[in-house]
Amino acid sequence: MSGHTENTIHIDAPLDVVWNATNDVRSWPDLFSEYAAVDVLAQYGDTVRFRLTMHPDEAGRVWSWVSERTVDPINRTVDAHRVETGPFEYMRIHWHYAESGAGTQMTWVQDFHMHPNAPLDDAGMTDRINTNSVIQMQLIKEKVERRHTLESGAQATPTHQPSSESVPSIRPGRIDASDLPADRRRGGEIRTVLSPKTVGSTSGFTGVATLEAGERIAEHYHPYSEEFLFCVQGELVVDLDDEEWPVAAGQGLFIPIGVRHRLRNVGTETASVVFHLGPLAPRPELGHVDTEPSDSAAERAR
To answer: What does the alpha-carbon distance between residue 118 and residue 116 come to, in Å, rounded to a whole number?
Structure first.
């Protein structure tokens, strides 16, 4: 038995534009949301060997492997395989492109077989790849179309204008923070007030964190989201990659993607901060990576 996936998407941009954008492997961390880094190890003719490193997964693990891919600009095809196969016995990838009206149809085909001791079998990996391919293809489509529109100066023209009946209606929402349960897993009291779950937001989420004197929110980082903090009450020290940043009432702090941060109430009164994160991670469990246990977790472990 082996695994097989095939996924296709239409991109409203010329074939040359799509081909060039998606086959520049050095730019993949900007094109895909799942890749943190690409290191080109060797290049000869139309073949490139490179190391691909992903953002940490929900358990904080970082996956990395070496792949080799060969492009055929004449036939608009790409063939690739994993050199370091990891949990796969083999992984072979084939991409092909075709003109579709004024745009481009891009198709990804993957054939693979999992090791017997891998965490997923062929069926499980097939489901995972199909789910993730849809997410990444849609992201690539949006980025390539936006870039093409800006560079050409043309207005983007959607290939299909959905009817009002086919588009979910997202209406304004008002939530009282006191109606939500407090999340104390990482220290303090955290309430995520406006989110995809509570109001159907699509670009980020907002909440409030309350820390009593001496409390902290354990160190963590966000692989996909920027964080904006505004201190409403009290005073905090926020450790950003081990550098201390004092934040007092009335001050805001910006935390870039991937920066480790820890909040500590160093004052004598209750501290309260409003936070906003965006854009959203591809899946909720990928949005937050803990790098140390919280005080509450340490207490439970005793």
So the answer is: 6
**Preceding amide of 279 cis, omega within 30:** yes
d(CA 159, CA 137): 16
Q: What is the dihedral of CA 79, 23, 223, 167, to 10 degrees?
A: -100
User: Around Cβ 166, how many Cβ atoms within 10 Å?
Assistant: 8
3-class DSSP assignment, residue 77: strand
- Mapped onto helix, strand or coil, the DSSP state of residue 71 is strand
Q: Give tens-digit pLDDT for 227-253.
A: 999 999 999 999 999 899 999 999 999
Question: 271 and 236 in contact (C-beta within 8 Å)?
Answer: yes
Residue 75 CA to its chain's centroid (Å): 32
For the ranges 119-128, 172-181, 198-207, 269-278, the maximum mean pLDDT occurs at: 269-278
What does the block give as tokens for 163?
Answer: 């009817």
Q: Which DSSP symbol is given to 72?
A: E
**Minimal CA–CA distance to 96: which of 184, 174, 15?**
15
Question: Would you place residue 153 in the very low, low, confident or very high pLDDT band (cuts 50, 70, 90)?
Answer: low
Element housing 123 (H / E): helix 122-152
User: How far, in Å, CA of 184 to CA of 158, rounded?
Assistant: 45
**How far is Cα 273 from Cα 230, in angstroms, rounded to an integer?**
5
What DSSP string runs through 83-116? SS-TTEEEEEEEEEEEEETTEEEEEEEEEEEE-T
What is d(CA 85, CA 6) in angstroms, rounded to the nearest whole number? 20
pLDDT in tens, 9-31: 999 999 999 999 999 999 998 88
